[in-house]
Amino acid sequence: MPTPLHGHFDYLPPAQGPLPPVGARVRVPFGRRRIVGLVVGHGQGSALPNARLKRIEAVLDETPLLDAPLLNLLRWAADYYHHPLGEVISAALPQTLRQGKLAIARGIERYHVTESGRTIAPDGLTRAPRQASVLRRLQANPEGITLEQLREGQDTDPRAALRALIDKGLVERHHRPCLEPPRDERPDAPALNAAQQAAISSITESLGGFTCHLLEGVTGSGKTEVYLHAIEQVLERGLQSLVLVPEIALTPQLLERFRQRLATPIAVLHSSLSDGERHCAWLSARSGEAGVIIGTRSAVFAPWARPGLIIVDEEHDASLKQQEGFRYHARDLAVMRGHREAVPVVLGSATPSLESLGNVERGQYRRIELPARAGGAVAPRLKVLDVRQQFMDEGLSTALLDAMQRHLDADGQVLLFLNRRGFSPALICHDCGWVADCHRCDARMTWHACARLLRCHHCGHETGLPARCPSCGSPLAPRGQGTERIEQALHKHFPQYPAIRIDRDSTRRKGSLESALAGVREGRYRILVGTQMLAKGHDFPNVTLAAILDADQGLFSVDFRAVERLAQTIIQVAGRSGRALRAGEVLIQTHQPDHPLLSSLLGGGYRAFARTALAERREATLPPYASLALLRAEAVDAQTPLAFLEQARDHLQTLSLPGIHPWGPAPAPMERRAGRYRAHLLLHAPRRQDLQRALGPWLTELARLPGARQVRWSIDVDPADLT
């Protein structure tokens, strides 16, 4: 059942008809509600007398919706991450199927403006405001929009307005199948180098059984081409491939390359799809109609009929870890799924996680290397810009501005990376020192000039900009740089060169990200400024200069993984430069030019950094040489979560479990967030088996502790973020 309760619930079989199979959905009474559950087993009896058991009211699936291998994977995930099985199953199903809709793919209906509808002004429909509202939405989405997307944020049903607009010839309805058919014409594949050929052979030779390959290739080395050739071999065997990417932003570009090359329908699964689109894609994957399934994190639970190959692109990316609710890691579940279903797994990255490199070290993963860029491209030159005592104009040093001018004059594109959205990360009074803090978090409000709002990036709280300092009445001054402020500075320094900002704020509207990326690749924009969205996997062949505006952000952190993430970011951003035949350059602005991380990266690349970092982790017995679990607690005051975690620690010690070391409790690095105080208790164990053996009995008892009812608490196994 989709509830936060552990364990299963017993029901009597339906009054009529056959017994529902394991893996089928049923509708049952649950308290005062009627909800949809999934059959996970047939019992010979119940601990409760039959008189107390309720009866299944309806069987929704004649055959299992989830087959035995997928259901068993979900059971394993629930056990490993210590999360209720009902919520784990719920996370694996599309919303439509959770609601009890038929498991039938009927295609997608989308509404489009006609040529007349594209040119008419909605304000002209003065006597039909609902029609005007619908028309505006459709004009803003020229690729079309579904009925359920039109309903989002609307107080009234839009169907009557749609019918009227169709009658006026302003809107038309199109029905399309769930999956786009394969294209008739496909371009020839580029020539492969020897390393790519060896990688493809290694992967295809392992088809039919489980092997985990770590495909470590420098940026631009042609990992995607290796994926495509391996998938073609899988398709020739009549099997399916599952491809995971960490970000929705990577999906359009990868999907287009796959559609150009592969003679099979492709199912796409990510959170930006409408419920109907996700329903269609999920069922097409389950039936086997889709030869390839591409998706973000939750697609690791996608069903398939003929398992063949699993690929995890950018396997190092933190986005593959779910940070709320059911806190699973899609990469680790992909490896486990491959192991359980006897299919090979490929983990691809230019900057592999230290966990994956540790598994190579232990002989659990097979390493495949692509040491050179494909197609004759040369690696970019990395250079540190020491900005100490240098004049900075809105975060841009003179040396960087000169380099930008040089590359722009040579018809190159420039990419600027700053992992900070908004206009300014702080609003300060120069006279009295007042700072615009979030009243719900231990954080400062970020000034968003475009929206004219102060916004907290941790809890989402928003407020208008004060006209003057609330404390002394003096003018307020923005401090620090965000992507909005850099974009404004670029218009001042390079007015003749079009610039575009790509971050979460500028790409909220459906289709806006795809449009922005297309504009970059077509050369309509010469300067790109953005956040992590720009650093991951994109191919911008005309970018010849990439710059990291503030490398110091990641050098100092309470999280032991922060330095690893910074190293990965630097290499990934560098990889956007010089991907074609023109040489690339990478500039790193920092106040710490002699920091060991930067020296290591510039001297020996990511491989040298990783060797040093692994040695440090081994010395400190941190992952991948140990296992961690993080118990989080929060409450409306600061002492209550700490008191509960102290009780939890004391109870753990009474269990006398070998090899388990509790660290803490302590306040979270950001103690107050969204109006609640947070605290952490970290569990450390040299062996994963010892940690799992301890968590089961310990977590069962936590709910009975005196302080448990006064806090919200959760367990995070293999935490990726300790903040």
TrEMBL record:
Matching Pfam families: DEAD (PF00270), Helicase_C (PF00271), PriA_3primeBD (PF17764), PriA_C (PF18074), Zn_ribbon_PriA (PF18319)
GO biological process: DNA recombination; DNA replication initiation; DNA replication, synthesis of primer; double-strand break repair
InterPro entries, sorted: DEAD/DEAH_box_helicase_dom (IPR011545), Helicase_ATP-bd (IPR014001), Helicase_C-like (IPR001650), P-loop_NTPase (IPR027417), PriA (IPR005259), PriA_3primeBD (IPR041222), PriA_3primeBD_sf (IPR042115), PriA_C (IPR041236)
Cellular component terms (Gene Ontology): primosome complex
Any one GO molecular-function label of the UniProt entry: 3'-5' DNA helicase activity
Protein's UniProt keywords contain NAD: no
Cofactor: Zn(2+)
Binding positions (Zn(2+) 2): 438, 441, 456, 459
Keyword terms of this UniProt record: ATP-binding, DNA replication, DNA-binding, Helicase, Hydrolase, Isomerase, Metal-binding, Nucleotide-binding, Primosome, Zinc
Claim: DNA-binding is one of the keywords in the record: yes
Ranges where the Helicase C-terminal domain occurs: 464-629
CDD domains: DEXHc_priA, SF2_C_priA
Residues at which Zn(2+) 1 binds: 429, 432, 469, 472
Cofactor info, note text: Binds 2 zinc ions per subunit.
Catalytic activity: Couples ATP hydrolysis with the unwinding of duplex DNA by translocating in the 3'-5' direction; ATP + H2O = ADP + phosphate + H(+)
Protein EC: 5.6.2.4
Ranges where the Helicase ATP-binding domain occurs: 204-370
Description of how the protein assembles with itself and partners: Component of the replication restart primosome.
Family, similarity comment: Belongs to the helicase family. PriA subfamily.
NCBIfam families: priA, PRK05580.1-1, PRK05580.1-4
Function: Initiates the restart of stalled replication forks, which reloads the replicative helicase on sites other than the origin of replication. Recognizes and binds to abandoned replication forks and remodels them to uncover a helicase loading site. Promotes assembly of the primosome at these replication forks.
Protein name (database record): Replication restart protein PriA
Gene that encodes it: priA
